Amino acid sequence: DEAYHEYVTDSGYRSSLALRAAYPNVVIMRTFSKIYGLAGLRIGYGVASPLIVEAIDKVREPFNVNSVAQIAAERSLDAKAEINERALKNAVERDFVEDRLDALCFARARSQANFVYFDSGRPATESFKVLRDAGVIVRPMAGSFLRATLGTRAENERLVAALAVLASSDPRPFEESDAASS
User: Fold this and answer.
1) Spatial distance between the Cα atoms of 94 and 151, rounded to a whole number of angstroms
2) Of 37, 74, 86, 110, which residue is 20 to 30 A from 170 by alpha carbon distance?
3) In which element (H, E) is residue 130 found?
4) How far apart are the first and last CA of the chain?
5) Would you call 45 helix, strand, or coil by DSSP?
6) Within 10 Å of residue 34's Cβ, how many Cβ atoms?
7) Contact between residue 145 and residue 119 where contact means Cβ atoms under 8 Å apart
8) How many C-beta atoms surround the C-beta of residue 27 within 10 A?
9) Helices 80-103 and 153-168 sit at what angle, rounded to 10 degrees?
10) Phi, psi of 141 (to 5 degrees)
11) The dihedral formed by the CA atoms of 112, 116, 120 and 126, expressed in degrees to the nearest 10
């Protein structure tokens, strides 16, 4: 799954395409939903050996991608400058948010996508509520982890301000309310 392939800035990153060449059972999946901005059109593509493509064709529904989605995907491939600009802006904003997460002492995974994934230090559902009340929506994940999609500088500044509120709030009320409900 290389859905975030176009966002990667790590010089050590290697695409899976070499694996596909070495192992005929590997299928690489990519999407036009992320950096290309075509999520509503539900279009992507796979790179696979002819034998796997033949097997997929036997079970896929006919006309599973409409002509509008096909045209949009084809045209988006010609928008290399715009896609590169989006990737660059995302990398700048990712660095900005990750630097602030570090300054606020949130443990995090190093991202190569259009989102950050970090440990909020308390149950994710409770952190979600604090951030929601501050006007920021994130995705609560397992345990105490959150996923926040990157946006514009103004949106990311709002996220960071809400995270500062979260970092400075007392986690004990959450722990007590969890204990009381069990």
Assistant:
1) 9
2) 110
3) helix 124-133
4) 39
5) strand
6) 20
7) yes
8) 15
9) 20
10) -115, -165
11) -140
Which position has the token pair 């990398």? 91
pLDDT (tens, 9 = 90+) of the chain, 182 residues, equals 999 999 999 999 988 988 888 999 999 999 999 999 999 999 999 999 999 999 999 999 888 899 999 999 999 999 999 999 999 999 999 999 999 999 999 999 999 999 999 999 999 999 999 999 999 999 999 999 999 999 999 999 999 999 999 998 866 555 544 544 44
In sequence order, which residues have a C-beta less than 8 Å from that of residue 52 and are 6 or more positions away?
A: 24, 25, 27
88 contacts 94 by C-beta, under 8 angstroms: no
Q: Are 145 and 118 in contact (CB under 8 A)?
A: yes
How far is 171 from 181, CA to CA, in rounded Å? 16
Take residue 137 and report the two structure tokens written for it. Answer: 């929506």
Q: Which two tokens stand for residue 94?
A: 């990712």
How big is the CA angle at 175 (ends 172 and 179), to the nearest 5 degrees? 140
Q: Which residue has the tokens 């975030």?
A: 4
- The DSSP call for residue 49 is -
